[in-house]
Amino acid sequence: MKHSRKKNARRYIVAASIGALLSAGVATGAYAGSTTDSSAPSAPAYQPEMVKALATTLGVSEKAAVQRLDREAQQQDRFAELRKDRVDTLGAFFTADGSLVVNAADAESAEEVRAAGLKARVPERGESQLDRIKAELDAKALKSAPAGVSAWSVDLASDTVTVEVNGDSDAATRSFLKAAKSNGDAVRVVKGQEKLETQAVVPPGSRMTFNGYLCSVGYGAKDRNGKQVLVTAGHCIEDLPELAYNGTRFAKGTHTRFALGTRSVDMGIAAVDSGNSIGLDVTTYGRAGTVPVKGSKRAPSGAALCKSGQTTQWTCGKVGSYNVSVTYTDQNGGPDTVVTGLASSSVCTQGGDSGGAYISGDQAQGMTSGGPSNQRCNGQVNSPGSSYFQPLDDALAYYGLTLNTK
Q: Of 398, 305, 287, which is closest to residue 343 (Cα–Cα)?
């Protein structure tokens, strides 16, 4: 029966991550504002724990890590100006040394990029061609989910569509790989990867609950009519439930683009009840205060990134690729689900982190979608690992929302 299938599926789908941006005022309707004191010292430009984690990852001093973040921000601003000036570019990515490389459409555009003080190259294929190949693979996977293919994405740095294989050899996987390899060296196949799943568990209790389960709160935003909504992972609210915080209802799911076993995008929203609000700071679970949300400018591949989630709490790494598609397996034996439109990262997550907030500097990036089934983080901020997140800017654009910021 449909009802029992849904109930069963939720054990796999429903996320178990405490609301990353949910302030104490959510249940009561009180919003804790801040006062401005001109005599108070100015706040640091970057969240201290992010600086510390980046310094540890790079093996440099915290001062050097701040300089790295400053340089990344400056380069992103220059790139934004180039696009505003309609210079013909095909995306950009950070290299290991923190340099932003801009893919230029031709030699003339490359000269304009260099004149702006950025590195440039004219790729063999470029973003548009790779996106077309990726779209063809998406269409094939959506007809029959390839269980043996964990993820496939446009990788600007290698100028390829990268296909990650986990070893299964079902008919759909063989057909998918045949189609992928027909593109020659435009597709790079990486073997030995793990199967993926949404970061879902059924915990003993939670701040955000529904029907005996719990899920993560993502970001607060307002729609075109000025109504407040919660933006979260779509698989958290598949059945559009009423949501409660500390036992008190504060919102109800209204839209989701996730459904088990069908073509899915892992974004969804809930209407926030009158008198309630979503906080404007990402919690670090006591590791380093809170991180203010001041925007949602997308960070390029290679940029520093941290996320907040119940299970692994505050973990950091870097942005991987955008336009990533994955195959999620259902631990309860349900159908596989192909999810498109994700981003990858080197941020470690585990079951229970779904919906957790990703942020780079003070710019909100997205919400935890899933990760490797057997991944175990070591408890450190820069724990080695990987994960996939739903980009926030795509969700805001799709639903016509404006992010709430400080």
A: 305
